[in-house]
Predict the 3D structure of the following.
Amino acid sequence: MKELKPKLLMTPGPTIVPERILKALSMPIIHHRTPEFTEILRDAAGRLKPIFKTDNDAFILYSSGTGAMEAAIANTINPGDKVVSIVSGKFSERLRDIAIAYGANVESVEFNWGSEIDVEKIKEKITEDTKAVTIVQNETSTGVRNPVWKIGEITKETDTLLITDVISSIAGDNIQTDKWGVDLCIGGSQKCFALPPGLAFITVSEKAWNAIEKNENRKFYFDLMKYKKKFPQTPFTSSISLLYALEESLDMIEEEGLENRIKRHVDNAEFCRTEVKKLGLELFPEKEEIASVTLTAIKHEKSEEIRTKLKENYDILVAGGQSHVKGKIFRIGHMGFVGRSELEKTISALEEVLGDL
Amino acid sequence: MKELKPKLLMTPGPTIVPERILKALSMPIIHHRTPEFTEILRDAAGRLKPIFKTDNDAFILYSSGTGAMEAAIANTINPGDKVVSIVSGKFSERLRDIAIAYGANVESVEFNWGSEIDVEKIKEKITEDTKAVTIVQNETSTGVRNPVWKIGEITKETDTLLITDVISSIAGDNIQTDKWGVDLCIGGSQKCFALPPGLAFITVSEKAWNAIEKNENRKFYFDLMKYKKKFPQTPFTSSISLLYALEESLDMIEEEGLENRIKRHVDNAEFCRTEVKKLGLELFPEKEEIASVTLTAIKHEKSEEIRTKLKENYDILVAGGQSHVKGKIFRIGHMGFVGRSELEKTISALEEVLGDL
């Protein structure tokens, strides 16, 4: 295929993929049904667990993150089951919509995009017959980070499952699956792992397995019982090249150290917020305390013009707003291997663009 | 990750991935929601159509081939719908099992593995209320090629949909989606496209769209209406690196010419059969006329010993038998970019191994 001229990817996924990972991608294919590949699968799944801070089972799925969202719902929710969905952005809407597609009786607890969730309001809706609560820990569409542990406190000692999307924060933010009481924790590859898209991750608690075993409606490709039964092999063909890349990403995470990596994300996020505020810009999250550590969402009525100028004059790609905030916000990703120098370059270009407006 | 020592992949998928494709995989990531990437998506989907010999819509899904099998069923079959499944191997069993998982009332028409299907027997089962017939054109588990067109003759002028798996033959065998009357035609990446696993393809006829639009039960990740609505963009994140590889594979297919490529597969298959017969071996398909052109399945009571010796002494990987023919057959893949020289090397090693037994 023809040469590509990539921009500097400052979007909240896909993010910059380092050379080492790109190189791993192009390693020759070995057969997936061999002891050699089984070892890779076992190793990768095992190394995901400390990143999720969990002792639960961890699986790699061959799909985008949405596939793992579907897996969480398809495996646990029967038609008519009551699901409480906490909705405050595009991806929490998606999780709710998947529950609806699987016939759940969904109670949607909605909050304005960018605002803090009201735990008391959510608590009121969770009753003994609530099968699951869905929440997005890091809303990529708004740059808001939600306090999952506060929901875990409600569901932990009950039969209610806590389904949490950490797609755009896992391996960047301090995700504490077990401590928070998350039963099904959903991750993706093209965010803080700095991988190409195409892999998704899911961790499954004992409480979740109990629900899954009772569910006769798990469908097929995302049927987690099949993955459990075949582990460390997989029920269907593995995306071999992407697994090589995952192994390389895990090596890099371990070399840096997870806690160092989390601190780097926290520091870079703070740097980004400080710098954009210095430029006179306003953050989209209503309070700085709820701002994501992997991306920064910024209000601006000329967001699309800013994005175009950054792209065309500086070869820098930032993301725009989605749905009803399209044109009203723009989003800078600082995840994976995006470093201070890329952030400085972006802020400096942004300053010039704002001067031109 | 650590260096791999790949064997010569003579398995019926994954198959040898040429250097050019491996190189394309490691191109830098561009964002999938850009005009540049949209152009790649449009181009790839457009170039798939002549390979399927179809004017129907063609979509790329981000999953293994099984995901596209599930898409075909999930989008068309409502609980209670009558489905006739032609079953004569592991993958036709899978297609049937997916229909069962979606609540279909499945009439399974079974034939011994390796035998020719009896079209009259199938025809008897297809009635006016049959929603779909499922068939695998190229049974990877048996090395048998099924005459899909004979089923198409039965379903073409009716409301019954013809769902066909060509995962291990598309881009190698002469697949004639429209001429045969296939409504949902399912392909995969790690077979004759010589790509890594992780992409699946599906073509959708007008007749299929009519059924899909009426289906309220399409679920989510594989909901083809979402793919149609978003085309040439995708509803969820594209596997960007694998798309680069697909573009490269399509370039290579076009450079060779599809008809030349099909002829090469036919010739290589004939060569392989002739050579193994010369070695005194018996083919697994009951008649040579029904043998696959992308793999050769061979009977041998010491299949596993043969495979081990080929692997350990010659660094050549061939596949074994699956399910009840495990240990009774072995399978040589000659798909994608496997050439005469790799086949000759394999046959020569096989001759030596047989001499040792």
Summary: The domain at 8-14+257-356 of chain B is CATH 3.90.1150.10 (Aspartate Aminotransferase, domain 1). Chain B is about 40% helix and 15% strand.
